Amino acid sequence: MSSSPALSARGSRLALLVVGLCWLAVLFDGLDMFIYGSVLPHLLETKTFGLTADTAGDLGSYATFGMLVGALTAGTVADRIGRKKLMVGCVVLFSLASGVCALADGVAVFGLGRTLAGVGLGGLLPTAISMVSDYAPRGRAALVIGLLMTAHHAGGILSAYVAKWLIDPVGWRAAFWVCVVPLLFAPVLAKFLPESLSFLVAKGRTEEADALAARYDVELPAAKSGRRTAADRWDALAGLFRGGEWTQTLLYWLASFGGLLLVYGVATWLPTLMRAEGYALANALTFVVVFNLGGIAGMLVAGRAADRFGAPRISAVWFALTAAGVSLLSVHMSTSVTMIVVFLTGVFLNSAQTMIYATVSIRSDPDRRATAVGWTSGMGRFGAVFGPWLGGQLLAAGHGDWGFTAFALAGVSSMVFIGIAALRGARQAPRTTDQELVGAH
Q: In this structure, are residues 283 and 335 in contact, taking their beta carbons and an 8 Å threshold?
């Protein structure tokens, strides 16, 4: 394929367009995901819908359950209708679902809105990662995927400011109306985002794929030599349990469960737990901003650290540092010191889970690597459902001070499980690429 300066310039512009549009979509994904946690302290203090801590935990789990459904079905749906259409559909779904939350007159309708939003949120991120992988400039896939991953945390930062600016003067419903605004972005996405080259090739639309790749100097993905059948997929899954592999597989799954319990438990309850520790609501929401700034920084340094010291080792150390940081948050410190602890906790927490996926990818046989990472992520999603529920149960039982301790223990458990798995994995599979490491999160 030609690589003249003119073509390269066009390819760079296309990559910038695709990454920019996907970044905005994931930004809105993060806004919608974090907005519930940002408005939750107000909902509890005003007893909106008669909301109690345990009911609030259930509501938090509805969105993560929806994300589980969305993540598990995204690949199948994308194979049928295309990644572009799926992305547009996900944006429309979670935007309209936020409108349902804004109009809700009770817990049941609000919970339905959060569940539907979760389905859209769960389906969008893996699809966006696939899209930017197709159009990333040669040799820059890891860079652009890492950049895309920062958008989710930027959305978390935006959610805190939306809550701070709107709740007192306008009310909590206004925050969810802001989350409907991405609906206006859907037509832009539909008009300007090109279809995935991988999808076009897989569907045999080779002329369309060739024309698009040649026009923008984008490398065309190779066609698959054969289509994997259901039997092939089940055989790959069964291979994770053959011989002594079952122990290793379960260790990875348990580590992922604890990791995502910690991620989504803290994401949902951080402002409320900080409020319970005596911090003002404004400071509690500022902690969300600082936490997500740490997440952005962590995503940018995790891959480099793993390249130097090994993903299994970094995963275990990161979870240990996360557990220490989360434990410290249960101690009332000066605001400035707390900000530092929250930032560092965000650095380690939000990239520790990625290191689990990296470890699984590194230590899996190439022919079942995708299955191993996919199921490790899927099992972890059950932890994502359990984490928000657990926080609500502890607060409802009057043990809010145990919230941070419980989440810290989840971090310790993941440290132990991934550490044991790393020690048991004497055989080293070929190293994964940076793209696999980042894109699996």
A: yes
